[in-house]
Design a protein that fits this description.
The chain is mostly helical. Helices cover 46% and strands 3% of the residues. The protein starts with a helix and ends with a helix.
């Protein structure tokens, strides 16, 4: 392929990719929380403050309802209040997407994982706080961020490793699938 044609194709692909990264999701359907598998992004966005390492593996995406969108906004507000940056919000939102699909879950009876509750599925018995505290989006986000701050070099880690170090999940690699949607949500709501 000649150089001019190759540069044109790469330039168009770059514009399309950049538009997708910064535009975020176009529409959300309130009642649909179906997980949509997306193909891995083949272009690495090294140096980008939202996804500095590029995404890892297949990406999932769900449509958010009003409650889930309000929880995204609460996570972003708590992140700003904690004096942390957009990348911390991406890690937090991706973690909450994996743990609860951004739903502030109370006790689920037999479907509960031990006594896990809230957006981050934190456990009172593990010292995360009381049930009232961990089901408060601001408190639970602040607690998660406090744990994240204690992870040396979290800013330079892949998202799934940073999240796993805080959460200690039985499924440590599952956080990675939500990185693109979390970045899109932060890009959409950070400056609102």
């Amino acid at each position: 392929m000649n150089t001019i044609l190759r540069k044109s194709v790469l330039g168009i692909a770059g514009l399309a990719f950049t538009g997708g990264v910064f535009a975020g999701p176009v529409a959300a359907h309130a009642a649909d929380t179906t997980i949509h598998a997306a193909k891995p992004v083949s272009v690495s966005v090294q140096g980008d403050k939202l996804i500095p390492h590029g995404v890892q593996g297949e990406q999932s995406r769900i449509d958010l309802n009003d409650e889930q969108t309000a929880n995204v906004k609460a996570i972003i507000a708590a992140t700003k209040k904690a004096g942390m940056d957009e990348r911390a919000a991406v890690v937090s939102i991706a973690t909450a997407l994996q743990e609860s699909k951004l739903e502030n879950l109370g006790h689920l009876g037999d479907r509960n994982d031990h006594d896990s509750q809230g957006l981050f599925q934190q456990r009172p018995s593990s010292g995360w706080g009381t049930v009232e505290q961990i089901t408060d989006p601001e408190y639970s986000t602040t607690a998660f961020l406090k744990g994240l701050k204690q992870v040396d070099g979290w800013q330079d880690m892949p998202l799934t490793k940073a999240a796993q170090t805080v959460q200690v999940s039985a499924y440590p690699d599952h956080y990675a699938q939500w990185e693109q949607q979390a970045a899109d949500l932060v890009a959409e709501h950070w400056n609102k």
